[in-house]
Design brief:
It contains four helices and seven strands; from the N terminus they run βααβββαβαββ. The chain is of the alpha+beta class and about 150 residues long. It has one domain: Aminopeptidase (3-Layer(aba) Sandwich), CATH 3.40.630.
Length: about 150
């Protein structure tokens, strides 16, 4: 059974969080599907409305997430979530998304909807998000790559 726990990123786990990757490849600032954790941590430092958390299964570090208030769209967003490649395909993604939803509802005032965006050909992520209850809105966010927007209604 999965025991997903969200913990703060601290000096004790910082380097381990930074070393997490979605693929068994060299470190890059922007991975195929998501920004690197080091980029997200830097962004959260200069944009304090974003919360970063390390994702654990019990005592084992397995991933990273960033969520908070998207000030551009004035809505709560699950901005980043990644599971290290060693733990993918084992049910951790859905369990982690559900725990992040619980954390957002518990800690963010008036959080009744949670949005996220995903690259349309990232089938694995779309499977995880829809399994967790997110629904496609029809909105498209323009960026490096156009991304479909999904919403979870609390």
């Amino acid at each position: 059974m999965k025991k997903i726990i969200l913990r703060d990123v601290t000096m004790e786990n910082l380097f381990d969080v930074i070393k997490l990757k979605t693929e068994d490849k060299e470190f890059v600032l922007f991975e195929k599907w998501v920004a690197s954790n080091v980029f997200s941590l830097a962004q959260a430092k200069v944009q304090p409305e974003w919360v970063t958390k390390a994702i654990y299964d019990g005592v084992q570090l397995i991933g990273f997430t960033m969520f908070g208030l998207d000030t551009e769209h004035d809505r709560y967003e699950l901005c980043r979530i990644m599971i290290d490649y060693k733990y993918q395909g084992k049910g951790f993604g859905t369990a982690a998304v559900k725990e992040v939803i619980n954390e957002m509802v518990r800690t963010l005032p008036y959080c009744t909807e949670i949005f996220l965006s995903v690259i349309p050909n990232n089938k694995a992520a779309i499977h995880v998000y829809t399994k967790a209850g997110f629904k496609k809105t029809g909105e498209i966010i323009k960026g490096f790559v156009d991304e479909d927007v999904y919403c979870y209604k609390v």
